[in-house]
Amino acid sequence: MDARHSLGDLDIYLFKQGRHTRLYEHFGAHPEALGPDSAGTRFVVWAPNAAYVSVVGDFNDWDPAASPMTMRADSSGVWECFVPGACHGQRYKYFLSWSGGEGERADPFALFSEGPPATASIIWDLHYVWEDGDWMADRAGRNALESPWSVYEVHLGSWRRDEHGEFMNYRRIAHELADYARDAGFTHVEIMPVAEHPFYGSWGYQSTGYFAPSSRYGSPQDFRYFVDYLHRQGLGVILDWVPGHFPTDAHGLANFDGTALFEHADPRQGFHPEWKSAIFNYGRYEVAGFLICNAMYWIREFHLDGLRVDGVASMLYLDYSRPHDDWVPNRFGGRENLAAIELLQELNKSIYEEFPDVQTIA
After folding, report:
1. CATH number of 9-122
2. Is the pTM higher than 0.70?
């Protein structure tokens, strides 16, 4: 088994403490070889309240009985299996059953997804050869607080379309956008969220695939090229990142294993009345760790120069956009979301320890 993706006791400990910033290297779907004639994919998913979990996909005719997963015996709630023959580019989901129900879910750690309205995850290898070494070596000065910034905010799907009115690929957008932003005197481009989202009209602010660049504009490698090329043209790249809420689409994170796993069960804490979406349970270590790991993923794996954290006020205040009798005070009787504050503190600590040359922006 490939040691890069196997789960050891330390990995599980850090996961349960919400402190594993490379969790995406272990969870999700990872092609590997157990031997010279035994290639396949290892799958790992967190579903502590499910009674049965399996992987369904192109490799087993989407049969819920074909590739059952086994829950680990360490009380982590983590299920895993190795599926021979499952390979790069194939579609998959998890099939879960629980007391009173069952359903298929996309992989929370999927690195790539089908284009909407399809919702399956895709087994994917992120290999890419970067060419932005000069930018990365010098970006501490370019991104410093005392350096001048002029930021162009853009939604990739709305900014420009191709000759047929269709979405352009990340690679083509990179060339046209770099020319425009550089000629206009901008130092950085801020892109609205590209994490996969089912509803285009949300502009990416209702994400379901937190680790998957939207397939509307190409592959993860295409998005890496987008950042790479802008860097080579002297432009920084900032990504809007949405830890404040997520949509309740059936294939997504909501009610993932038949319970409120990622979100609060109490709608006064777990449902956003303004955006009609679910709110993460920041006080659950595994959930806080999922978000911190995700932020680190985008910076580490896509060479981003900063994250613009969306909806911070909605995270910080328990009574945000709520009637006076429809929220739950913190343990001191106040309106501050103490768990969200702790999450943001840990987020900044984790990012700046490893990447002191980037910025986080509220």
Report:
1. 2.60.40.10
2. yes
